[in-house]
Amino acid sequence: MARATAGLLTADEIRRIGFPWSARMVERSRRSSGATVEACRAALAGGVAVNLAGGTHHAFRDHGEGYSVFNDTVVAARQVQADGTVRRVVVIDLDVHQGNGTAALCRLDDTVYTLSVHGAKNYPLRKEQSDLDVELPDRTGDAEYLAAVEAAVARAVREARADLAVYLAGADPFEGDRLGRLAVTKAGLAERDRVVFDACRAAGLPLAVTMAGGYAREVTDTVDIHWQTVRRAIEYGR
Ligand SMILES: [Zn+2]
Fold it and tell me: How far, in Å, from the CA of 174 to the mean position of ligand 1?
């Protein structure tokens, strides 16, 4: 992290992240992590909160990759633990790519439970081990996707015994996504959000939401999918 902020990354490390290095890129990444910290604190105070960025789950302790510089989820989980407001956190990562950085960072940490539901054949090719990984075949549609998500979220919430949930609401399982490889519709993703929000509400879990990935051929589709998540959060917060 110190080398990233000081501009001392090698050309190879910068290529792995996928963004050109600049002081502004570092500042943006820090603020995005700070916003997830604040979303967690706001969720603990008011039940639900959304960071309109974050979800950079491919960042590891010693390097970033896949457009992820810092792992905001883990930064935030550790910060609210340090605040003394939570003991255990459950990470519900439904971005279509595995939360490999999050899994690696928390593998030996029993206080952060990591769930990742992702495409089996998608990036990253070498997967890490989450507490619960669910791999989906290419072209998975709404019915299979929702059945897998519902079972996985229920199990994660039950096993984690957490005080706070962080939900990475990636828009990239969408059928029109350039990188997703799945075939989930917008309505299917809205239903996915409902499953997550209902599971957290039933368990009395405060919920912090981050955006994670979205690469639809039509950018307005990605915006629609994120917006339906935010709208669900607004309803849930009432
Ligand atoms: Zn993704």
Answer: 11
Q: What is the pLDDT along the chain (238 residues), one digit of tens a residue?
A: 678 888 889 999 999 988 888 899 899 999 999 999 999 999 999 999 999 999 999 999 999 999 899 999 999 999 999 999 999 999 999 999 999 999 999 999 999 999 999 999 999 999 999 999 999 999 999 999 999 999 999 999 999 999 999 999 999 999 999 999 999 999 999 999 999 999 999 999 999 999 999 999 999 999 999 999 999 999 988 7
List, in order of start, the domains of the chain with CATH numbers: 2-237 (3.40.800.20)
Query: Ligand 1 center to residue 7 CA distance, Å?
Result: 26
Residue 118 Cα distances to 11, 96, 122, 129, 173, angstroms? 29, 4, 8, 12, 8
Residue pair 118/164 in contact (Cβ under 8 Å)? The answer is no
Residues 167, 203: contact at Cβ < 8 Å?
no
**What is the distance of C-alpha 59 from the center of its chain?**
12
Q: Give the integer Cα–Cα distance in Å for 92 and 149.
A: 10
Rounded Cα gap, residues 148 and 141, in angstroms: 11
Q: Which of 1, 192, 168, 189 is nearest to 90 (CA)?
A: 168
Q: How far is the centre of ligand 1, averaged over its atoms, from the C-alpha of 109 (Å)? A: 24
Centre of ligand 1 to C-alpha 65, Å, is 12
CA 84 / ligand 1 centre spacing (Å): 31
Beta bridge partners of 116: 93, 133
**Rounded distance between C-alpha atoms, residue 46 and residue 38, angstroms:** 12
